[in-house]
Amino acid sequence: MNDRIFNRLTEISVALKSKRQTGRTFHTTFILEKKRIISIGINNLEKSHPKTAEFDYVGEKKGSFIASLHSEMDGWLKLGQTDCSKYTFINIRINNNGKLDYSAPCLGCKRLMEQIGFKKFYYSNKNRGFTEYNL
Length: 135
Fold this sequence. Notes:
Layout: H1 3-18, E1 25-33, E2 36-42, E3 59-61, E4 64-66, H2 71-79, E5 88-95, E6 100-101, H3 107-116, E7 120-124, E8 130-132
Parallel strand pairs: 5-7
Antiparallel strand pairs: 1-2, 1-5, 3-4, 5-6, 7-8
């Protein structure tokens, strides 16, 4: 994957964030077939989905546990396919300053990726770049 694609997807994430009120950060997951975007997932801290129970999605908020719809699962659900082994996933986190931030998959998202597969998986890192994730 080249920097031009990462930069363009980051621009799209910033634009999407500007249109939504969110919590402290904003996550998007782009699912690509070759260089074409075929699905975009966005995190939703207010909603859950019955599928989250299958992948151990649990987050902690003020001492109680909540489940939320993570961008990886949202993108996968929108895609509507069980085998994603030919697709590339790219996770991007935009912080409240509009900057690229760390977006490695959580345990639930890792379990999801193991089950649905992927060709490649990248996430934004602490150095405002991208890291390839390997199971």
